[in-house]
Amino acid sequence: MSESEQQTRMRERPTMEAAEESTRDVAILASGVSVLLAWHQFFIRGNRERGLFIGLWPPTILAFASYFNQKRMQQRLESLKPSSIIDSLDQMFGNR
């Protein structure tokens, strides 16, 4: 295997891992199931009102998921502030 092929695979690996993680995300699965349920209610059972109601669930589910992901990212960024990095280094090497 050539070096360029190895570099290409290394660059693709985080993308593939992110794609696999997103497909396993519960919010995306729940949204997809609710879309199918809404179509079922609207077209097959003919209950248009219930189909429209259930059709409003996916954006709400995805909005909550986005909010919680943003909160998690904010917490990670706050933990990487310079003062915490300096404190971590001080703890590793002992206070000078």
Notes on the structure:
By secondary structure, the protein is mainly alpha-helical. 86% of the residues lie in helices and 0% in strands. The chain has five helices and no strands. Helix 2 runs antiparallel to helix 4. It starts with a helix and ends with a helix. The mean pLDDT is 80.
Key attributes of the depicted protein:
96 residues; mainly alpha; 5 helices; elongated
Give the overall average pLDDT: 80
Radius of gyration equals 22 Å
Number of helices: 5
SS content category: mainly alpha
Q: Tell me, what's the shape?
A: elongated
- Tell me about the largest β-sheet: none
Helical content (DSSP H or I, runs of 4+): over 70%
Q: Report the uncertain regions.
A: none
User: In percent, how much strand structure appears in the residues?
Assistant: under 5%
Number of strands: 0
Query: What is the oligomer described by this structure?
Result: single chain
Provide the succession of SSEs: HHHHH
**Alpha carbon gap, first and last residue:** 49 Å
How would you summarize the topology of this molecule?
Blueprint: H1 3-23, H2 26-44, H3 48-55, H4 57-79, H5 82-93
What would a concise description of this structure say?
This protein is mostly helical and about 100 residues long. The chain is about 85% helix and about 0% strand. The chain has helices at about 5-25, 25-45, 50-55, 55-80, 80-95.
